[in-house]
Automatic annotation (TrEMBL):
This is Cyclic nucleotide-binding protein. Residues 16-134 form the Cyclic nucleotide-binding domain. It comes from Desulfobacter postgatei 2ac9. CDD domains: CAP_ED. One of its GO terms (molecular function) is protein kinase A catalytic subunit binding. PROSITE patterns: CNMP_BINDING_3 (PS50042). InterPro entries: cAMP-dep_PK_reg_su-like, cNMP-bd_dom, cNMP-bd_dom_sf, RmlC-like_jellyroll. GO terms for cellular component: cAMP-dependent protein kinase complex; cytosol.
Amino acid sequence: MISRMDQINFLEKVTLFKNLSRDELESLASISEIRIFEKGDFLFQQNTQPDSIFLIYQGDVVLFVTTPYGEKKTITSFGKYDFLGEGSLMDDSPRSTSAKAEFDTTVLVLHNSDIRKIFKLHSLLSVKIFTQII
């Protein structure tokens, strides 16, 4: 089990949140969902509707695309403190890639609907996060 304090300390080290105050980090920790993916599990799949940001707490994730011919092409890999899916906050187009756990992987998941609620409570939070995305 990951304590709330450990979640906050982790979020501090994620570059997407580097300009956030402790209070803002606490708000994000309060809405984060801890999920464990076993080796080979999909975090998300290509052509599905995006709805979350994934923050890698432990483990590794490979991002890839499947061609129209069924061939898998690796784009990149992610590890601890990396994040993926952040584009879903700006664009709700279907995902253009798939993400799969390379090893047993623990992530903090932030659902977009919850993030938008936090944006209403902390007006500058969205600006700080979008500045890091762009």
